[in-house]
Write the structure tokens for this entry.
Amino acid sequence: MTPGFFAALGVPVIAGRDFTDADRRDTEKVVVVSQSLAKRMFPTQDAVNRRLMWTDPVMKFIDVSTEPRRIIGVVADVDDENIVPGPALTVYHPLEQEIFVGRLFVHARTDPYALVPSITRIIHGLSADQPVEQAATLDDVRAEVLAPDRLNALVFGVFAGVALLIAVVGVAGVLAFSVSARTREFGVRLAIGSAPRQLLARVLGEGVVIAGAGIAAGALGGLALARVVGSYITEVRMPGTLPIAGAAAVLVSAAILASLMPAARAAKVDVISALRSE
């Protein structure tokens, strides 16, 4: 990385400093690390001015020095590979000390693609043989990286919507059949003084009970299945409390909506007709 890289991308420097023009090949080896890496390596200490070194033997084959490097700064995590950003364990090297395949980042205030020809001319003026390929904005790069995850989210979202629709139809059908079969019972309850709202609440309660039983069975089944799959696939992770609570709330709300029509029908039962029915 060259000086100004983090400022161009809007990545805040949390501790220490950014690279400068003084960080050259003939000076002290330095690095900047991400916040998550700093917390993992030095959980109870300040990472700035600590030492870090590469122990992977592959480094010597790609011309990367394995000597210790001083951590001069800690920056915020940059995770551009996941829809929900997570911890990023990243080490940044100054370009003057380690030569890698480079990328040029330009902070533009206007249409970035309109600047590509001018930037290309400047680069070719510095090095005529330097190729310039795949000019793209960070939004475009991120969209390309996240496309598989977004497609999966869309597909599973459609399946979830179909499953929710089936559940709503199922709850409404069960309650509608129950109300039809209990017409005489409801008539008797109304005749002896039960208020229509009590019947309404009773049928809605039955819908909530059905949904609650389904949620409990699904949660227990999902937990058991996750443990079985987790014994074969190490990256299986259970969703957090908030997604589970949100899904349960959606299912309960859908069950209440599905119960409204059968409940309203039960509350409007004609007493005389109900008592005369077989």
Residues 5-103 form one domain. Residues 148 and 211 are 33 Å apart (CA to CA). Strands lie at 13-16, 30-34, 51-52, 69-75, 91-92. The two ends are 85 Å apart (CA to CA).
